[in-house]
Write a structure and sequence with these properties.
The chain has 187 residues and is an all-alpha fold. The protein is built from eight helices and two strands, in the order H-H-H-H-H-E-H-H-H-E.
């Protein structure tokens, strides 16, 4: 009796929704399909049964590839973010001037040496008198930036401060901080 009563209430409830027979059949079919998919998914679970040897081989291969990727990343890091080797200067002006004078001799080296790329030793470049080749020895400064620096220097009668390099098109705070330790400012 209860089942008939429940069936009757369900029938009247469906009638109140005004759903056609085709819509009811489509909805019922979708519910059956969804139920079958959920049951099939619960019953047919994939399990990965690797043997210990297979797992160890996979682990060794993973570690090799990880080490190779790390090595490549370290090489790229070294290439694009070299450690800045800056000589420590005393607080007195005399040793600093002597160091700048000795480095000034290094700056007047031939153009061929400057084109070979930055040297491992610390080289200071005077932005008010440096040539294009000398400016290109700075990290991140190529021929175009060197030309822009020279054009700005000529148009504005030199640089009054190192921060004035920010006025040169293309030189932003990051590039300036990369080259700041290697720049001197003499008239």
């Amino acid at each position: 009796m209860k089942f008939n009563n429940l069936k009757r209430k369900a029938f009247f409830w469906i009638e109140k929704l005004q759903i056609s027979r085709k819509e009811r059949l489509a909805f019922s079919l979708m519910l059956v399909i969804l139920t079958l998919i959920l049951l099939g998914n619960a019953v047919l679970t994939n399990s990965f049964n690797y043997e210990k040897e297979q797992y160890d081989q996979l682990l060794v291969e993973f570690e090799k590839r990880s080490a190779l990727i790390e090595k490549e990343q370290n090489a790229l890091e070294e290439k694009y973010n070299p450690a800045l080797a800056v000589n420590e200067m005393d607080d007195t002006n005399e040793p600093a001037k002597a160091e700048k004078a000795s480095i000034g001799e290094t700056n007047t080296s031939s153009t061929q040496e400057a084109e070979a790329g930055p040297k491992p030793e610390t080289i200071f470049v005077n932005i008010n008198s440096g040539t294009s080749a000398q400016l290109q020895t700075l990290d991140g400064i190529g021929p175009a930036y060197a030309q822009r620096i020279i054009e700005y220097r000529e148009a504005n009668d030199g640089f009054d401060s190192i921060d004035e390099l920010l006025n040169v098109r293309g030189i932003g705070p990051v590039r300036l901080e990369n080259v700041r330790p290697y720049i001197i400012l003499d008239d």
